[in-house]
Specification:
- By secondary structure, the protein is an alpha/beta fold.
- The protein has one domain: 2-Layer Sandwich (Aldehyde Oxidoreductase, domain 4).
- It is 25% helix and 24% strand.
- The protein has 5 helices and 9 strands.
- Strands 4-5-6-9 form a 4-stranded mixed beta sheet.
């Protein structure tokens, strides 16, 4: 554990504006990230100018500050996307909550008419495909149903590695912050699904990876040395905390694009949005163990 390559950390300072009807009209994100050469962000820590929802808004300001970094960095499952999905999709949920709107309706309104979000781009979100997986995940999860106190549903969408994926997480939280993840619904459009069983297993594996990271995995350094030695202090998800994972795929005649990466990024924001629905508390820092949550 002490001699590996690590994902770069980072901090986002975000603002948004809404019109009188609760529609998103402006987006600002200042990303404090890291650089190994003092000139450009480390590869997996860069903020893409086409990061949703920026391409569908007229008023956008994206900026970055670079801090020096000597620690070796490398790719984790769904490189770059695994770090950006959490702040982007969590903040979108904060905005929809501030607008007093249902998050499903808010997301669908943002995407609008079916089209390529960035016309002419070889790798762009398609609004129609995004809306389809959001609706599918919501329908399969029973979005909008009444839940008992301390239980909530959270949703997030993310586009990465040419895959459109929406996820709904169902959680319950006790007064002492014991967190139970009951169910995760994954809806994806990845083109033609050549191997349905393999695709289902990728969804399950990505959810378990994402939960492990979100719940308690953390690397810390003291005097330049990594403190974690093994899985005893870098905990993997245990089988008793593993939720039921359901995977659904949109029928498509589009060439397949793969599913090894895209199901991981939406997990953390969907999970934390569900915690907000269950408790009213907003989580802005990962892992969840730092806020006292445990399984």
């Amino acid at each position: 554990m002490r001699f590996d390559y690590y994902r770069p950390g980072g901090f986002h300072s975000m603002k948004a504006s809404l019109d009188a009807k609760g529609r998103l009209t402006g987006w600002q994100d200042h990303f404090i990230t890291f650089s190994s050469d003092g000139k450009s962000p480390v590869g997996v820590g860069a903020l893409d100018q086409a990061e949703f929802p920026a391409p569908v808004l007229e008023n956008v300001h994206l900026s970055q500050s670079l801090l020096p970094l000597a620690t070796r960095t490398g790719s984790f499952r769904a490189p770059r996307s695994n770090g950006l999905a959490f702040p982007m999709q969590s903040f979108l949920h904060e905005v929809s909550s501030a607008a007093g709107r249902d998050h499903l309706e808010f997301l669908l309104d943002l995407f609008g008419a079916p089209r390529l979000i960035v016309p002419g781009a070889g790798n762009s979100i398609h609004a129609g495909r995004a809306a389809a997986v959001i609706r599918l995940a919501a329908q399969k999860a029973g979005w909008g149903r009444k839940l008992p106190a301390g239980r909530g549903l959270g949703m997030a969408f993310y586009y990465s590695h040419s895959g459109h994926v929406a996820e709904v997480v169902e959680v319950s939280v006790t007064r002492d912050r014991k967190l139970t993840v009951h169910r995760v619904v994954v809806a994806a459009d990845i083109g033609i699904v050549v191997n349905p069983l393999g695709a289902e297993q990728q969804a399950q594996g990505a959810v378990m990876d994402g939960l492990s990271v979100a719940l308690g995995q953390r690397i810390t350094l003291e005097r330049g040395a990594v403190e974690q030695r093994n899985f005893g202090d870098y905990p993997m998800l245990r089988i008793n905390a593993a939720p039921k994972v359901e995977a659904y795929f949109v029928d498509s005649d589009i060439a397949p694009t793969g599913f090894g990466e895209p199901a991981l990024p939406p997990l953390a924001p969907a999970l934390c949005n569900a915690i907000f629905a269950a408790t009213g508390e907003r989580v802005r820092t990962l892992p969840l163990s730092l806020s006292g949550y445990h399984t």
